[in-house]
UniProtKB/TrEMBL annotation:
This is SnoaL-like domain-containing protein. Residues 3-94 form the SnoaL-like domain. SUPFAM superfamilies: NTF2-like. Transmembrane segments: none annotated. It comes from the Eukaryota.
Length: 106
C-alpha cells in the first residue's frame, strides 16, 4: 500500500509541475522544490541540443516564464507514466508532449 501512495504522490507532483508551467503559476512551481536547493535539470530526451544543467527552483521558474510567457496557451501533456521502485530509489518513464520519452532515473 505504501508504494501505491508513493506512486500517486509522484504522479501528482509531475502533473502539478505541468499545470504550473501551463498556468505560469510561480508559487505552484516553486512549491514543488526545496527552496534554493540545486538540482540537475536534464531535458536532453525532450530537447536533444540541451545538455543537463545544474539549476535552482527560481532559475527553473525564470527559464519557464521566459520561454512560455509569449504563448496565448500551452499544454504540457504527460502520458504512459510508469513509476518503479528498486531498493531505496524510484525511477520511471513516460511520454511527453513531443515524440521522446522522459526518464526519472532511478
Amino acid at each position: 500500500m505504501e508504494s501505491l501512495h508513493a506512486k500517486d504522490s509522484i504522479h501528482t507532483l509531475l502533473h502539478t509541475l505541468a499545470y504550473a508551467e501551463d498556468d505560469l503559476d510561480r508559487e505552484a512551481l516553486l512549491s514543488l522544490f526545496l527552496p534554493n536547493t540545486p538540482f540537475t535539470l536534464d531535458l536532453s530526451s525532450h530537447l536533444a541540443s540541451l545538455p543537463p544543467i545544474d539549476s535552482t527552483p527560481q532559475q527553473l521558474w525564470e527559464s519557464a516564464y521566459q520561454h512560455l510567457a509569449g504563448f496565448t496557451a500551452t499544454q504540457h501533456m504527460l502520458g504512459n507514466i510508469l513509476i518503479t521502485f528498486e531498493g531505496e530509489g524510484a525511477g520511471g518513464r513516460g511520454a511527453g508532449e513531443r515524440d521522446g520519452a522522459w526518464d526519472l532515473g532511478g
